[in-house]
Each structure stands twice: as structure tokens, then as C-alpha cells.
Amino acid sequence: MIDSTTEVKETMQDDSTSSAAEVDFTERYSEVIGKVNETLDKVDWSQVGRIGKASGVLLAVIVAQILIKGVLDTINLLPIVPGLLELLGLVVVGSWSWKNLTTGEKRSAVMAKLQSLRKEYLS
């Protein structure tokens, strides 16, 4: 009989502390939401659009780099493909060199093109 009375008193104390905790949580939650709303009212939303676009582009570049890395890693796992790609690179460089660097006039044209690109992008 003594045990049952103690259990009832403990249950009543737990109920009162939980309701006090709920009230405290509700007050604290409304305070936090109020502060968040005040902070959001101070934000210059025209600048946020620019920041959002820039972060979106950055995110897209990161995702593209991850996908490209995955594709290249997959290609490197195949035994013959990396060697063929190196050979293809050598053939392309050799062909371009033969077409653009065989005579003095062609070399001068390539240098003029490089100088014009340099002026256009670096100055």
C-alpha cells in the first residue's frame, strides 16, 4: 500500500514537470522563430539572388567534376582503353603539329594567333 501511494505521487510530479517543460519549449520556440524572422527581414534579397546563382553554378560545377571523375575512373579500370586513349592523344597532337607547324609561315600564324588570344584574355 505504501508503494502504490509513492508511485501516484511520482506520476503526478512527472506530469507537472512535463507540462512545465512543454510551456518552456513553446516559449523558447516562439522566441527563436521571432529572432529568425527579424534576421530574415534585415536581409537584402536582391543580393541573395546573385549569391544563389553563384552558389548554384558552383554546385553544378562540383557535381559535373564528380561525374567526370567517375567516368574517367571507370575507363581506367578497363585494361586496354587507357592505352588506346593515350595513342589517340598522340595521333591528334601529331596531326595538329603536322598541319600547323611544318612551315615557317604556319608557325608564324600560330604565334600570331596565340598573341592575339593572349591580348584578348589577359589585357
Question: Any overview of this molecule?
Answer:
This protein has 123 residues and is mainly α. It has helices at 2-42, 45-77, 81-101, 104-122. It is elongated, with a radius of gyration of 35 Å. The N and C termini lie far apart (94 Å). The model has no long low-confidence stretch (mean pLDDT 84).
Characterize this entry briefly.
The chain is mainly α and 123 residues long. The chain is built from 4 helices and no strands.
Question: What share of the residues lie within helices?
Answer: over 70%
**Could you give the count of β-strands?**
0
End-to-end separation: 94 Å
Unreliable sequence segments: none
On the 0 to 100 scale, the average pLDDT is 84
How much of the residues is beta strand, in percent? under 5%
What best-fitting shape do the alpha-carbon axes yield?
elongated
The major sheet is characterized as: none
- The secondary-structure class comes to mainly alpha
Which properties best describe this structure?
123 residues; mainly alpha
Chain-wise SSE layout:
Layout lengths: L1 H41 L2 H33 L3 H21 L2 H19 L1
